[in-house]
Specification:
Elements lengths: L5 H15 L3 E5 L4 E4 L10 H9 L2 E4 L1 H6 L6 E8 L2 E9 L2 H43 L6 H10 L8 E8 L7 H12 L7 E4 L4 E7 L12 H12 L5 E9 L1 H22 L5 E3 L4 H5 L7 H16 L4 H11 L4 H8 L3 H15 L6 H20 L2
Parallel strand pairs: 9-10
Antiparallel strand pairs: 1-2, 1-5, 3-4, 4-5, 6-8, 6-9, 7-8
């Protein structure tokens, strides 16, 4: 592997020439010039560099020596070492009596650039490995657990720690710059101590896993971790995002289950509660059961009942009443207050629902049937688009 690339060599040349004011050449481990203030010398062999490599040290060239060597000019040449190996040579053109004093400084600068480039490449490699692991979790199939555990070990991830999957999705379906926007979100979030894994899943979604640190009661406000993510994205004026939060699990199977719970929650949330922007799987156990529903005689029958209900409830007033009745567990005083209606009006509406659908919402069994019909209708319509 050649540590000294042409791009890195030219960066070293540009940086050091600004400081010392002399022409600088960078040669690879074979003595070929790959970076220079004099671009006409690129790809030429430098015999002085070859001698420095053979000596594993310094070689100075005066006017007389320059006449006897090929492709060289007066100056000083020092080998560049990295990880105990000679990986190239730094050459400074000029009177050796003048430029030698800069030799160690330029050599140190070159070796520092190599260290930085190596650290950056390691960081990029680590990021790719983590992204590959996360995407493997997303697409996991039965029997993949052993492979996933090995991948987790390679990236230093302890899978038995409880984690929760979150899906962030752009809300604007017409956003032409979706991928750059998603990349910006990833750049803002990756490396934060509250996020273990993050990757772009497709042109609409980001998936991340975070430690399960902040318990949250069902149907309460968003937990602290999600609050922080939303606050950061709002401060940076990122495009609106929906967030689906899965269940917290541990282990390899737990990572898979957490992602799938977030995925089902996003599907159900978008279809059933499109006005919301954050969905928690723990708030929607009944709705997410239907996230992957397919057509059958049961769903057809329930959808037909719901379609008849929609036709009779053109204003949506009865559906709003049913939704609030469900959310408030049938507590008529709270329901009437939320809807700003008299309790007699509420009783009338509930009777109207029963008359139209044949299902009495005051009966727990019928109420669940009505809500299931609503959710099935929403999910089937969503799956068709």
């Amino acid at each position: 592997m050649s540590w000294m690339t042409k791009q890195l060599a030219q960066a070293i040349v540009s940086r050091t020439m600004q400081v010392i004011g002399y022409n600088v050449n960078v040669m690879d481990e074979r003595g070929r010039i790959i970076g220079s203030g004099d671009l006409s010398r690129i790809n030429q062999k430098h015999e002085g560099a070859l001698i420095a490599i053979e000596r594993k040290g310094r070689f100075e060239i005066d006017e007389e020596s320059a006449r006897n060597l090929h492709g060289v000019m007066p100056g000083t040449n020092l080998v560049i070492q990295f990880r105990g190996e000679v990986v190239g040579v730094i050459g400074i053109t000029g009177d050796p009596a003048e430029v030698t004093k800069y030799g160690e400084l330029v050599k140190m600068t070159a070796e520092m650039y190599l260290e930085q480039a190596d650290l950056l490449e390691k960081a990029r490699w680590d990021k790719r490995m983590k992204e590959d692991f996360l995407l493997s979790v997303i697409h996991a199939e039965p029997g993949d657990q052993a492979m996933l555990r090995l991948q987790a070990e390679r990236i230093g991830l302890k899978p038995d720690k409880p984690r929760v999957a979150c899906i962030l999705e752009l809300t604007d379906e017409q956003d032409a710059d979706s991928v750059p926007t998603l990349r910006r979100v990833v750049e803002l979030l990756e490396g934060r101590p509250t996020i273990d894994l993050i990757a772009i899943r497709n042109t609409r979604q980001i998936v991340l896993f975070k430690p399960h640190l902040h318990p949250r009661k069902p149907n309460m406000d968003i937990c602290e971790g999600i609050r922080q993510i939303r606050k950061l994205l709002e401060e940076k004026q990122i495009a609106p995002l929906r967030i689906a939060v899965g269940k917290a699990y541990s282990g390899i199977d737990g990572l898979i289950a957490s992602y799938r719970s977030a995925q089902d929650t996003m599907r159900a949330g978008q279809a059933i509660l499109p006005e919301h922007t954050v969905y928690y799987s723990e708030d929607m156990p009944n709705e997410t059961v239907l996230a992957n529903v397919g057509r059958s005689w049961v769903t057809d029958e329930m959808e037909q009942m719901w379609q008849r209900f929609i036709q009779e409830d053109r204003s949506g007033e009865l559906r709003q009443t049913l939704q609030v009745y469900y959310e408030e567990s049938g507590e008529q005083q709270r329901i009437a207050q939320r809807l700003a209606i008299h309790r007699n009006t509420l009783r009338y509406r509930l009777q109207r629902i029963a008359d139209v659908t044949g299902k009495d919402p005051k009966s727990f069994r019928d109420l669940f049937t009505l809500m299931s019909a609503w959710w099935i209708h929403a999910m089937l319509r969503s799956n068709e688009y």
